[in-house]
Amino acid sequence: MKLYALSLGAGLLVGVVYSLLQVRSPAPPLVALVGLLGILVGEQAIPVGKQLLRGTAFGAACQQTQATEHVLGQLPGRQAAETKPGDPQA
Predict the structure, then answer these.
(1) What pLDDT score does 3 carry?
(2) Alpha-carbon gap, residue 34 to 84, rounded angstroms
(3) Cα–Cα distance between 60 and 48 in angstroms, integer?
(4) What is the CA radius of gyration of the chain?
(5) Fewer Cβ in 10 A, N or C end of the chain?
(6) φ and ψ at 31, to 5 degrees?
(7) What is the tens place of the pLDDT at every residue in 12-31?
């Protein structure tokens, strides 16, 4: 139930922001996609930020928290590079 309340709260917050920006809902496709990108990047800000505060370099922090994979998804050709020669998937 708590998850649903948080989801509703986040939706209300986005609705208020849309109202302040005078964007109608549903948002135009480009606005919606930029918003979704913001959600994905914002979701990774705290884990990456924690790593940066520990003194980790930005690239290493993104790799340790798997932020790049979360935001961009599996990039083409990545699976083939990560598969080892003895793996059954090869």
Answers:
(1) 82
(2) 36
(3) 9
(4) 18
(5) N
(6) -65, -40
(7) 888 888 888 887 777 677 87
Supply the pLDDT for residue 79.
63
Q: What are the tokens at 59?
A: 């690239």
Question: What are the pLDDT digits (tens) for 32-78?
Answer: 788 888 888 888 899 999 999 999 999 999 888 888 787 777 767 76
> Is the separation of the CB atoms in 89 and 83 below 8 Å?
yes
On whether the CB atoms of residues 70 and 40 are closer than 8 A, the answer is yes
Give the contacts of 25 (CB within 8 A, at least 6 positions apart): 15, 18
pLDDT at site 90: 45
Alpha-carbon span 38 to 51, nearest angstrom: 20
Tokens encoding 3: 């998850």
Residue 70's CB is within 10 A of a number of other CB atoms, namely: 14
Q: How far apart are CA 3 and CA 6, in angstroms?
A: 5
